[in-house]
């Protein structure tokens, strides 16, 4: 019989957790309201409330053991929310970089701009496609751009420590396709000169890139003349004249991509069809919104998996802490529980009371962990590690209400599991045995 009850409890845990994971906040609030009504309006509910009140009143006497639950769960929630905030901040930074009314054209089957090479003929043909917006002079708003990986010294690192940054060669139309890019220090580079402007994020990450500094890129000396800000992934790049970059890195008339401003978001299909139907072109076309969203998927997925894995490992530890604490509390209150059973309290109020006590401690831990994560990590600047072909990306962690709710759900789930088995043990404890033990 005991084995069957344990199996049923495990099945109950699995079912409740499966439903709890998918529960929105409003449904959880509705269930809490129904539960509160049950405690107020029914006899067993009022009994559960009475037993819970007695248990809570003794928390001061068990402050150390109760703090184990609170601190353990706070740590789980804090770490989980911080790692998920990293994934959300990274994804949001890349999503903000794109829009539905701009499109990017790269060589067919290219995973990113760094891997794409468009020959001069393709660069000339792409702006002739239908659906592109025109500027005041009637020219298509299309920006052929060259993207290469460069190395710069890391700010605050060892003297010889360098990391990769994306150097983007652009022309005058780059500003028309990205009107959010603004010079915030110094001035823009002059065409034909070895001058650089540095993104605000790159300025924070790298040393020696203030206006007036000189850096060595591609075996040439460049002068930093300004800093720009865009509020998206472009903040992590450095820009220069496309022709000068092409000469320095021996790229000739080729470009990595062409970014265009569409006449209207609805013009995307005609623009794409015009390029795909041209036998002289072998290109891939995406809106910049789709392109940068795809770029974020892999890294964001890795960060989320890492966060959940670390969270599960920590949650197991917190869960065992809660189980030990509540089993000890039940043992210490065995005579009290037996007395309540003897005077007419049924098993259900006892189960509810023990679980409520645990989940209230879990709730406090979840709120504390979420608050700490928000205070410490919301808006915290971070960056990805650079590889040989992709530069660092600066972004800010975002601790959103949705993430705080996720952390709170984890906390309450730990409290549910940590309180369920001790609660059932308390309800099944024979009255005569409990009275003889103490």
Automatic annotation (TrEMBL):
* GO MF annotation terms: transmembrane transporter activity
Q: Which domain of life is it from?
A: Bacteria
Q: Where is the ABC3 transporter permease C-terminal domain?
A: 309-430
The membrane-spanning stretches of this chain are 28-45, 66-87, 305-330, 350-377, 402-421
Q: Name one Pfam family in it.
A: FtsX
Q: Where is the MacB-like periplasmic core domain?
A: 66-276
Q: How does it sit in the membrane?
A: Multi-pass membrane protein
- What keyword terms does UniProt attach to this protein? Cell membrane, Membrane, Transmembrane, Transmembrane helix
Would you tell me the Gene Ontology cellular component terms? plasma membrane
Q: Where in the cell is it found?
A: Cell membrane
* Protein name, entry field: Putative ABC transport system permease protein
Q: Please tell me the species this chain comes from.
A: Fulvimonas soli
